[in-house]
Amino acid sequence: EEAASDFRRPHNNEREVFLSSPVLLWRGGSEGARSREMGSSSPLTNPVFSPASPPTSLRHLPPPLLLLPFHGKNPRPLRSSPLRSNQRPRPSLLPAAAAAAVPARSTSTASPLHALIFDCDGVIVESEHLHRQAYNDTFAHFDVRCPSSPLHPVNWAPEFYDELQNRIGGGKPKMRWYFGEKGWPSSKIFETPPSSDSDRAKLIDELQDWKTERYKAIIGSGTVAPRPGVLRLMDDAKAAGIKLAVCSAATKSSVILCLENLIGDERFQGLDCFLAGDDVKEKKPDPSIYLTAAKRLNVLEKNCVVVEDSIIGLQAATRAGMSCIVTYTSSTANQV
Fold this sequence. Notes:
By secondary structure, the chain is of the alpha/beta class. Among the domains are: 115-126 and 226-326, Rossmann fold (3-Layer(aba) Sandwich); 127-220, DNA polymerase, domain 1 (Orthogonal Bundle). It is 33% helix and 13% strand. The chain has a 6-stranded mixed sheet. A two-stranded antiparallel ribbon has the order 1-4.
């Protein structure tokens, strides 16, 4: 058994922040990792993870502590919701060698945290079902019918969309892949399936534009709320002097509307960096968006912690040389 000193409480100059969503913490490298049964509110030392070999699946884990430097007089702990009676504590991936090397009274051997970077969809808001609705509304509006199912417009079922969005980042790549697999469709845009690259690009552009406007209408309806704990985590990080950024693969206009509606204009304008899919050439899991964010924030990659919800996002963050916390959703919990 590991000594109790492997798990330290925050010092007076640190604020303890519990993430309210289930998370997976990843640390690769030569230190390795091993599992340990623990309760839902157990503090973890150094929830910071090296970029080596990101995992290929996510496990359901209890929420950890995120230690933020704090210079105020009255730090307030943010605690996660208790486990329901039918839930059991899950094993945690811990950097055993590193933990054993950290004295109970030491501050940390991890790189200092200078920037906290959030994905948007699935992190700030649990939105994948809303995106699926917007896609299906788009397919119905344009009467998009693939040769594999010509009797009805394309309709992505929840199970299929979960698999699709966890494997392919970005709306246009999703549709291009799907039409490549199922056959290019007829539609109100093209009565016969497009055969040239230019016509196929035009089809996808028009579908994506309409889908984006439909998604913005859903977000702007006032019925969508941010995930629990997100706003307070942002505020506490800001108060601790940590830079904040949002990096999303989604279309810029839809992310802006989403952030304005969900985190408020003051928090949005207070971000130190905001990037969307339009700002980089390659989508996640390519690390471009996070590398660009580090440059704009003027921080080293090793001093950034990214909050993601999926394997694709985790791969993008770790390939950028950043640490990553995965707060997964019902759509990403069972990724393999």
